[in-house]
Specification:
The chain has one domain: L-arginine/glycine Amidinotransferase, Chain A, CATH 3.75.10.10. It contains eight helices and 15 strands. A three-stranded mixed β-sheet has the order 1-15-14, with helices on one face.
Length: 220
Amino acid sequence: MLELMDFERNPNIGIFCRANENVVFVRKGLQKRLKKRIEKALEAKLVEINISNANIIGSILAINSKGAVVTDFVDEESFNVLEKHGLQVLAIEDRLNAAGNNILVNDHGALVHPDIKKSNLKKIEDTLDVPVYQGTIAGLKTVGMAAVVTNKGLLCHPKVEEKERDQLESIFDVEVMIGTVNHGMPLIGSGLVANSKGAIIGSLTTGIELNRIEEALDFI
């Protein structure tokens, strides 16, 4: 199921939310009706969480069905909440600690910012239980915002290069398509949160963009 929405008039919902197949973590303080819509769209349990009082969950948390990589300033309570929901958790000690911005992952593989410390790659791999590669999308190093991937498809920045597209298809074992969200925004991760069952999408997204999301993530 696909749902258009905003969070308190902000259509950049991907900054405040992160989902896998079973659970969706969202910033605290959303209206009850909105939380129900999110759960229904993604067919996942909704968990409210602010990480060390930060509400930009989508920017500082990366998850798949096995694990979670989170910023190293995560508080103990939030760390425990992530573990409680069946995830191996890594608080990444790196200058590039905005894990959601810098890691793109599904249950087949992960692509990470090319400047993440080499010593952290094995830790990420062990936590998420998938092979980890470094690379870019459309020349952008913040791969977690340049695309959204599920176990069924991948939608990415329209300026992705052919060699990058080939790498993405190899890593994630899905077809790669290009598109935008929120009326022309190429940073897909800022306005789209998805799993294999559904998606929530920024409210400014056009009908044409919505059709591309449906096709790319195999909801048609």
